Amino acid sequence: MTDVNDLRDPMIALHGLEKVDHAYTIYYDETNNIRRLHVRADGLNERDPKCFVVAGVAHKGPTRPIPIETLRSALKIQASAKEIKLKHIASGSFLDVLATPKLTAFLDWLSNEELYAHFSILDPLYWSTVDIVDSILAESGEVALYPLNRPLKNDLYAILRHDYDHVVDVFQRYTYPDVGSARRREFIAEIQDLLVQRGSLLPAANRNMLHGLLQIAADLDALPFLEDETANVLIETFGPFYLERVSMLKNASHIFDAEEGIQAYLDSLRLMDGNRPLSNYRFATSHDETGIQLSDVLAGVIGKFFTYICLTGNNDLIRDRHNLSAQQKRALQLLAALLDRSVTENSVFAHYVISDRDREAAAFFLDQ
User: Fold this and answer.
1) Could you tell me which of 217, 143, 145 has the C-alpha nearest to residue 181?
2) What is the DSSP letter of 50?
3) Which pairing describes strands 52-60 and 29-31: parallel, antiparallel, or unpaired?
4) pTM score of the predicted model
5) Which Pfam families did the record assign (predicted)?
6) Which of 39, 92, 142, 158 could form a disulfide with 96 if both were Cys (CB 3.0 to 4.6 A apart)?
């Protein structure tokens, strides 16, 4: 049995979260769901893993009718289409999607219906590397470094992500994340070498701080999250990211798009809220749930946005932002307003497992 309060209470205290006990109805869909990420002899099982997104729409209180026919009419969707999907509204890259007038109509409609957006974003490669920093901090007990946890992870990821093929090569040679005690120092030395080679990617102060962290690691007797792990398994399931949603908003009703593996994962945990069983989620098919159809569109748009952010350099982001057409600017304004309104309603509606650089780049692009 799993008591969700054991999962949520530390996060509530750490971040000072409010409104976590409010009641909502929350619908979900996902995009870029590769289901697992493994290291193989020929590379990763997914060559270029994009940002995994589980996202959708939400509203206050219990389930209520959502007048989707007015949206179908506004979008001029043919009667033969049984349900609304992103493909009915837009296709292509994020910038292509912004250029589509139907997206503007969709976002306007969400606002008029007083629906919120929610999302959980995961960069699989970032998530796969954070255990390096967490291992060093946990074993060293250097309390002074704890506030630098995220900046250190961001800087390490900047060094590693600079050469995708080399990162995969490192994963392969060290059977990552099961580096093991025998090769621990060799592994850290190789990361140090990469820092020397790519140090120009970081400001001097950041470079020196990361170098100091790796020096600490070289003298440690263990790296706890890089030993006795399952070799070559970076992500076995995305189930914990669904669990985080169900746990943090335990008084909400969570309606997920049918996903057998995730349903089996959650069911196996036998969730509890203290002494009582917690059954605050269910799985449904999109043609039976209007909210899931809306979530298909929103998850797709948000997924395209964060994938674009993660793959695009800062100079190109500045150029693209400057060169947006009037239509693209209008759609971006509506998307930014929806996300701002949603996070103002409840900060838990936004959950990030991406680097600080990517969070800052996303905020820059959305800023009006």
Assistant:
1) 217
2) P
3) antiparallel
4) 0.93
5) DUF3800
6) 92
d(CA 321, CA 295) in angstroms, rounded, equals 26
Kindly give the confidence (pLDDT) of every residue in the chain, 368 residues in length, as a single tens digit, with 9 standing for 90 and above.
999 999 999 999 999 999 999 999 999 999 999 999 999 999 999 988 899 999 999 999 999 999 999 999 989 888 778 889 999 999 999 999 999 999 999 999 999 999 999 999 999 999 999 999 999 999 998 888 889 999 999 999 999 998 888 999 999 999 999 999 999 999 999 999 999 999 999 999 999 999 999 999 999 999 999 999 999 999 999 999 999 999 999 999 999 999 999 999 999 999 999 999 999 999 999 988 999 999 999 999 999 999 999 999 999 999 999 999 999 999 999 999 999 999 999 999 999 999 999 999 999 999 96
Cis peptide before 10 (omega within 30 of 0): no
SS3 113: coil
Tokens of 169: 């090569």
**Dihedral sign of CA atoms 352, 356, 361, 367 in order:** positive
Amino acid at 20: V
Q: Is residue 177 reached through a cis peptide bond, with omega within 30 degrees of 0 on the bond before it?
A: yes
The residue extents of the domains of the chain are 1-17+27-368
Beta pairing class for 37-40 and 43-44: antiparallel
Identify whether the C-beta of residue 255 lies closer than 8 Å to the C-beta of residue 62: no
Using DSSP, state whether 30 is helix, strand or coil: strand
Residues 6+ away with beta carbon under 8 Å from 30 = 52, 53, 54, 55, 238, 257, 259, 299
